[in-house]
Each structure stands twice: as C-alpha cells, then as structure tokens.
C-alpha cells in the first residue's frame, strides 16, 4: 500500500463537491481560483543555531519547495483532481514582502496554471496577511462552486437550467450572493432522520489534516487485516501533484513560464 498525504483527497466535503463538478452542474468550466492566506512567520526557535537551521528548513531554497511545495500542492491537486487533467504550463511570481529575517524563500506568491481547453487556475498564497483565509472556487457557464472552511456552496447563473434537487436545498447569503449549501453528509443525516439543511455545522476539530490522518490509519489497519483496497490518493496522484507544485515553485523563483509535456506526468 502506498498512501500519499494530499489532504483534500480524503476530505468528505471535497469528495462531495467533486461529484457535482463531474455531473456537469457547472456547465462548461471557465475559470478556477484558489488561495491560502495566513499571517505567520513559519520560523521556529531553537536552543542552538544548528538546531534552528534544521527546524527552519522551509525557509531555505536549498531544502524547501516554498509556499507552492508546502501549501499550494494541496490546492493544485484539487484542480488536477476536479478537472481530471494535468497542467500545460505555469507562470509565477513571488517575493519576500514581510518576513525579512534572512530567509530566501518567498513569503507571498502568485501563479497562473494553464489547463487544456483554455481553462486557467489563478492561485495566490501569503504569510503576510490572513484576510479571506483559504478556499477553492470553480466557475462554469451555469454555476460556480465555492469550498471554504469545511463548507461548500453552489451559486447558479440566472439562465442556468433548474436542478431537480435544488428546490429542497438550504440557501445562504454569502457576501452579495445567494448560494445553495452543498452538505457533505446529507445521505447519512437523512438516514438518521435529520434534515441536512438544518444540520450543517462543521466540527472545528476535524479538518483536512484530521481526515487525511484517519484515512491513512484506516488503510494501515485494512492492509494489516488483509483487506487493503485502493487508497484515495496513491503514488500517481502524489507524483503528479508534487511535480505540479515543484514546477510552480520553479516558475515563481525564476520568473519564467514553465511548460509541461504530457509524458512528464507519467509514473514510469
């Protein structure tokens, strides 16, 4: 068994949303946007300079994949997964705008990832500001889907065809828009007599990292009992996401456009 730690692959909310994406509820995918914002230095203190250097490996280009390798990899993987496609090219930019403490890894980055069909993902991450947190947004000709803070919503276009189930779904105001709540455990809630529209609170102790760890431990237990099945994120997915993230970091570090060949993503 080989289980890759791409956190959203085992997140119930993302697994719920991908079904809507795959059914064509968005219409034709037009654009994607995702981000990760958190004001934090990433720096850790230690008793000796040697130990401090070892602990702060993420702050050195010699040992770190930067924000794209450490954080962006999970959201780049979501784009690869949801689109069922690999990138064609990446253009990136970045620099140190806040934490001028001797590091040589950018604390703020942006990149544009090109996918087949003229579809682009615009991505940004920063350690300098926490506003608006982290999310993934998928926009199509019929609707958009936003995944944020363990919750998800669908925002319909006025000319989009009606979906049979949406009349029963809960609606919420998000900013200036009204979204249809996409409840990850709707089937389970119905099975125990609860209304999904009234039982949508998320457990703050069970985020993406929790579900990733739980999935890994379950896979280990099943393998030990001779019941190992297909992991939700195997070596191919791990390799493809890692290559995407490292090439994004390369584009940011060099300021150049990085292109891919189809065979780059083959796990041989």
Q: Which key phrases capture this entry?
A:
single chain; 268 residues; alpha+beta; Dihydrodipicolinate Reductase, domain 2; 10-stranded mixed beta sheet
Describe this structure in words.
- The protein has 268 residues and is an alpha+beta fold.
- It has one domain: Dihydrodipicolinate Reductase, domain 2, CATH 3.30.360.
- The protein contains six helices and ten strands; from the N terminus they run αβααββββββββαααβ.
- The chain has helices at 12-22, 49-55, 66-83, 186-191, 208-224, 235-254; strands at residues 29-37, 89-95, 108-115, 119-126, 134-140, 143-148, 151-156, 171-174, 177-181, 258-259.
- Strands 8-9-7-6-5-1-4-3-2-10 form a ten-stranded mixed beta sheet.
- Helix 1 crosses helix 3 (66-83) and helix 3 packs across helix 6.
- It is globular, with a radius of gyration of 20 Å.
């Amino acid at each position: 068994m080989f289980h890759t730690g791409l956190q959203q692959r085992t997140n119930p909310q993302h697994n719920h949303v991908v079904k809507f994406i795959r059914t064509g509820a968005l219409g034709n995918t037009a654009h994607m946007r995702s981000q990760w914002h958190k004001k934090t230095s990433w720096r850790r203190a230690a008793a000796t300079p040697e130990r401090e250097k070892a602990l702060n490996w993420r702050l050195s280009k010699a040992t770190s994949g930067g924000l794209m390798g450490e954080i962006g990899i999970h959201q780049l993987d979501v784009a690869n997964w949801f689109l069922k496609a690999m990138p064609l090219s990446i253009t990136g930019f970045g620099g140190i705008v806040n934490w001028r403490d001797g590091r040589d890894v950018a604390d703020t980055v942006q990149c544009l990832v090109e996918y087949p069909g003229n579809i682009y993902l615009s991505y940004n991450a920063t350690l300098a500001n926490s506003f608006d947190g982290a999310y993934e947004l998928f926009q199509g000709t019929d609707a958009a889907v936003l995944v944020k803070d363990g919750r998800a919503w669908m925002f319909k276009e006025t000319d989009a065809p009606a979906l049979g189930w949406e009349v029963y779904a809960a609606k919420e105001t998000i900013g200036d828009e009204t979204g249809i709540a996409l409840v990850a455990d709707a089937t389970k809630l119905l099975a125990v007599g609860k209304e999904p529209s009234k039982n949508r609170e998320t457990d703050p102790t069970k985020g993406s990292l929790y579900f990733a760890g739980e999935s890994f431990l379950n896979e280990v237990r099943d393998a030990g009992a001779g019941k190992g099945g297909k992991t939700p994120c195997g070596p191919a997915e791990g390799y493809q996401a890692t290559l995407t993230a490292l090439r994004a970091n390369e584009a940011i570090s060099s300021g150049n456009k990085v292109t891919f060949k189809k065979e780059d993503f083959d796990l041989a």
